[in-house]
Specification:
mainly alpha
Length: 54
């Protein structure tokens, strides 16, 4: 269930990101991480079995 844990982590971090007041600064500071996370998320959605699991 490593994937599920990863998704949970991404979701919780995204919630924190949404509720941040200085979200723009935060976004620029962590842009590469966020983009990589999005890329991983998109990649996960392309994988069949994982998508069925989530």
């Amino acid at each position: 269930m490593q994937l599920a844990d990863a998704l949970r982590l991404v979701r919780s971090e995204y919630q924190v990101f949404r509720h941040r007041k200085n979200s723009r600064e935060y976004y620029h500071r962590n842009r590469t991480q966020i983009l990589q996370r999005r890329r991983e998320k998109r990649f996960m959605s392309f994988c069949g079995p994982e998508r069925a699991m989530v």
